[in-house]
Sequence to fold (184 residues):
Amino acid sequence: MLIELKKFGEVLISRPAGREAYLAMRAHTLRGLEKDELIEIDFSGVKVLAPSWADEVITKITEKFKNVKLLNTENSSVSATLETLRKYFESKYGNINKETEEKLKYFFAQDTWHTEHPSDLERFYQFVAEAYRNDDTNIASDEFFRVIKEAGKYNDNFEDTVREYHLRYENAIEAIKVFDRGKL
Fold:
């Protein structure tokens, strides 16, 4: 499926305009397509692409489909915006080491993870040590929420507790950076 963005204009700016464009695509162009179908997004004819517009369209398409190819991205506005989105998603979701993620999942998988039981705290700090060893020293709180949801242990009552554990993680990583002498 080829999506020609120039059909939405030469200047693609604003989140509301991007949301409207995506809704139109979802209703007409993308309806009924399989998740693994090739989606080609053609930027030819686009003079200006704002990150907010691209986030509403490109991000949602790449979340819905596995095989997305971007065409004609040479325009400086297009390439800069795509680079901005790439960096944002790497920092937000990015590149958590599988071993680190498994330790965090193991912590959240326990029914008592939120009770501060000593064995749960030990599992949590084992995760922190694994994160440090794997150079996962900048994990975003969104990653914590993603992992606990995947573990099936999240409900809205735990939001503050997850945020507290994320803050503990950040503080522990900073302390390890100061005091580590190659022992971990």
In short: The CA atoms of residues 61 and 107 lie 32 Å apart.
